[in-house]
Amino acid sequence: MTQAKRQSRKLGWRFVVLAVVIIFLFLAVIRNVWMDVYYIPSESMEPTLLTGDRVLVSRLAFVNQPIARGDVVVFDGRGSFTPLKSGAAPVLDGVVGAGQWLGLVPNSNIYVKRVLGVAGDTVKCCSASGLLEINGVPVTESYLFPGDAPSDVKFEVTVPHGRLWLMGDHRSVSLDSRSLLGAPGGGLISTSKVIGSPVATVWPLGRIHVLNRDGAVQP
């Protein structure tokens, strides 16, 4: 092989590597600033989101509009839903982290729930008719998993500034704010932990839909 051919091959590989790095950095910027992909690992948001769904999440969903009751949010549960922890196996953590970044592996620190109470709200379960009550008004929840009660746990909380009361749509299996009533913070999640809102399901192919902020499929 001539010197010129060797030089050409080296330049070709360098170009490929550079192109891959640029694409990776471009995707990293997009996913950290604008859109990200998350894997739904459990049944807690059925029937709105199913186990195995990959959802496209807008990080800008709440920039111009505040989080409202009924919104479905993706949030970081570290320090509340999951304890703070450090990785014990850096290599394994790196592999798992790559799978999470690609949306192939569930991230045990990331949760998807529905907002039932924002700052100033008093959320109670249940009313005399067995419904969830927000600020003294019974609420009919059409998104609940068929056959589920609004809550098997009785509670009454007033949401302070900067906090949210979150619950899953499949109440009978959902780990949510009710599960943390006796913990520090009383199950109330900081708004600063909210990553964004699902705007579409992108996998599996048969469930590709554009979503509203409340998780309803757009026609």
From TrEMBL:
Catalytic function, reaction form: Cleavage of hydrophobic, N-terminal signal or leader sequences from secreted and periplasmic proteins
Annotated ranges, domain Peptidase S26: 16-203
Active-site residues per Swiss-Prot or TrEMBL entry: 44, 113
Xref: SUPFAM superfamilies: LexA/Signal peptidase
Superkingdom of source: Bacteria
GO BP terms, alphabetized: signal peptide processing
Gene Ontology MF, one: serine-type endopeptidase activity
Keywords (A to Z) from UniProt: Hydrolase, Membrane, Protease, Transmembrane, Transmembrane helix
Name listed for the protein in its UniProt record: Signal peptidase I
Source species of the chain: Arthrobacter glacialis
